[in-house]
Write a structure and sequence with these properties.
- This protein is α/β, with parallel strands linked by helices.
- The chain has 2 domains: about 5-255, 3-Layer(aba) Sandwich (Aspartate Aminotransferase, domain 2); about 260-390, Aspartate Aminotransferase, domain 1.
- It has 15 helices and 12 strands.
- The chain has a 7-stranded mixed beta sheet with strand order 1-7-6-5-4-2-3, with helices on both faces. It has a 5-stranded mixed beta sheet with strand order 8-9-12-11-10.
- Helix 1 packs antiparallel against helix 3, helix 1 runs antiparallel to helix 11 and helix 11 packs across helix 15.
- The longest helix has about 30 residues, at about 245-275.
- The structure holds pyridoxal-5'-phosphate (PLP).
- Pyridoxal-5'-phosphate binds near residues 85, 87, 90, 111 and 217.
Length: about 400
């Protein structure tokens, strides 16, 4: 399929590999391996695989390849490699490209597991990591140096929704020859402009908006063909982080409807943020689509929308926040995001429990903070749900 088709067309059709039966829905090639027509063919395939030639599902699989082609076409990168989870993508991309003596600069406001990979794992193998406040460009500029091999950031941070100026950070990184690696989950593939803003490697947890229905784990690394095939693939095919064909099929079908879902969820998030922003029981409503968000202008310039996640800071603290969580009838308490169901999370006691109190405070993870991933329910029901729950304080 040609490259100048619109994103929504690509999300529906791109990458499909029809078998001789001409099935409409993508086939699930639930097979660990592939039969060779002859010993010579097996030898030839191990020497060099051509297009649509597969050896072993840890290396590649037709259903997985269809998902990789579709997400790469959507993101605007030359290639992509699918992984068993979002964290397999983050750790795989970083470990594949880094070696002892390399230096990495990373934003500090990260998903807990990303922080663990950078702070606890990479450093064990001789990689030096400098953490900065991602919204402070002077800190990025001061931290990079000639041996900086990569910068890492979440373009929109979890759970406090800080938006990092990707173009500015990419310019700083590229000036010293470092690669820009972004975890783009909160921006979503629908609103991403990461390639045009200078990101070299773009990572998604497919578990979030790509599945969008809370069913399966998956992840993907998007980048140049050279980076994906020469750096990422050798590492991942030998270390075993492959996506299962069944989960790839779920993700392929998730991509088909992702644009509609994410836009509807973002519109509801905007409406809900506006409905709650002046509620006296909330110290803050954090959503990049609100004009008073500190990086509202950056978010507007670098994303095609403001995302599906917001945070509400209950002024009276933890007990009051728990009362709100327990009173919600529509939104459920869990820790996924990007799901069709609205999901609320109390980061301080769950996803970010591990962090010491001073780090929580520095990241804005207050005792009253509730993260809300807005789903596909009627927005009027969600607004009522929160108003009634806030009355329980
Ligand atoms: C969920 C998430 C991940 C990890 O993804 P998994 O699929 O759960 O492994 C990484 N980064 C961000 C920002 C996430 O939200």
């Amino acid at each position: 399929m040609t490259q100048d088709l619109g994103k929504r067309t690509r999300m529906v059709h791109h990458g499909a590999r029809r078998s001789q039966y001409g099935e409409v829905a993508e086939a699930i090639y639930l097979t660990q391996g592939f039969v060779y027509p002859s010993a010579e063919a097996a030898e030839a395939r191990f020497l060099k695989t051509g297009p649509d030639e597969f050896i072993y599902a840890r290396y590649g699989n037709p259903t997985v390849a269809a998902f990789e082609d579709r997400i790469a076409a959507l993101e605007g990168t030359e290639d992509a490699f699918a992984t068993a989870s979002g964290m397999a993508a983050v750790s795989g991309a970083l470990t594949a490209m880094l070696r002892a003596g390399d230096h990495v600069v990373s934003s500090r406001a990260l998903f807990g597991s990303c922080l663990y990979v950078l702070e606890e794992i990479l450093t064990r193998y001789g990689v030096e990591v400098t953490f900065v406040d991602g919204t402070d460009l002077a800190q990025w500029a001061a931290a990079v140096r000639p041996e900086t091999r990569a910068v890492f950031l979440e373009t929109v941070s979890n759970p406090t929704l800080e938006v990092i100026d990707l173009k500015a950070v990419a310019d700083i990184a590229h000036a010293v020859g470092a690669l820009v690696v972004v975890d783009n989950v909160f921006a979503t593939p629908v609103f991403s402009r990461a390639v045009e803003l200078g990101a070299d490697v773009i990572i998604y947890s497919a578990t979030k908006h790509i599945d969008g229905q809370g069913r399966a784990l998956g992840g993907v690394i998007c980048g140049t063909q050279d980076f994906i095939r020469k750096t990422v693939e050798p590492y991942l095919k030998h270390t075993g982080g492959a996506l299962s064909p069944f989960n790839a099929w779920i993700m392929l079908n998730g991509l088909t409807t992702m644009d509609l879902r994410v836009r509807a969820q973002a519109a509801s998030a905007q409406a809900l943020a506006e409905a709650l922003k002046d509620d006296p029981r909330l110290a803050r409503v954090i959503y990049p689509g609100l004009p008073d968000h500190p990086q509202h202008a950056i978010a507007k310039a670098q994303m095609g929308g403001f995302g599906t996640v917001m945070a509400l800071d209950v002024a009276a603290g933890k007990e009051a926040a728990f009362r709100v969580l327990n009173a919600l009838q529509v939104a459920v308490i869990s820790n996924n995001l990007g799901d069709a169901r609205s999901i609320v999370t109390h980061p301080a006691t769950t996803t970010h429990q591990r962090l010491p109190d001073d780090q929580k405070a520095a990241l804005g993870i207050t005792p009253g903070l509730i993260r809300l991933s807005v789903g596909l329910e009627d927005v009027a029901d969600l607004i009522d749900d929160f108003r009634i729950a806030l009355d329980m304080i």
